[in-house]
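forwarding from the other thread:

> can someone predict this with FE2/S2 (inorganic) cluster?

sure thing
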Amino acid sequence: MEELVVEVTRTDEKGNQKLQSFNVPKDKVSTVLEALLYIKENMDPSLSFRYSCRMEICGSCGMEIDGKPHMACSTTIESLKSDKVKVAPMKHYKVIRDLAVDMEGFFGKYKEVKPYIIRDDENGKYESEILQTPAQFDEFIDYSMCIKCGICMAACPIEGSDPDYLGPAPLTAIWRYVADSRDQGAKYRLEVASGPEGTSRCHFVGECTEACPKGVDPSYAIQKLRGSMVKYEFQSLFRRH
Ligand code: SF4
Ligand code: FES
């Protein structure tokens, strides 16, 4: 019987780390998540990791797989092209236990950018729907595919050296709403993006885009955001004079 050696970086409640290897029968599993579930169900029930949908939708199974952040549920054993795989918790996050990391900081940053439509006519008393043309819809739809997995934050080298940097996913969310013709929160959003921990910290290494499982392209979103910030500054100057 062919086996897959799964080497897991394990962390206990006190922060002690150790490597532990498990031999999983290859014919019983087809993804890294299934291999971890096999270990949990048949070898060590204490192995901790997060998952839910098993189909790259919930965004909860992010982890380092052979040194790069990926979703465990969509990483097939076949794609590993090896009989051994190393799994570890996502970088740039505090480890809670084993492969489960604390996403609180990430969601805090996400919340800061107000990821929802802001309207001047708040209280929602619209006289009719807010219509959009297909072209207006196309402006933001790709960026709304983000599943908030936080993988781009683990891939971003700036996140590693500056934990206060807003990071690729929250900045992409800013662009997603700035590009949405229904949104009127550009002033607030562009102020956040131009703050000291905003787009100026991005060095366009592009690791975020490479790592994103949903093809969101945060690196391009940040470039578009920068362009929009310059345009907004010019418009404000004209308004002032
Ligand atoms: S931009 Fe991509 S990698 Fe980043 S949180 Fe969204 S889906 Fe995940
Ligand atoms: S389990 Fe939901 S994205 Fe992997």
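The pocket of FE2/S2 (inorganic) cluster (ligand 2) is lined by residues 51-54, 56-61, 71, 73 (CB under 6 Å). thats all i got for now
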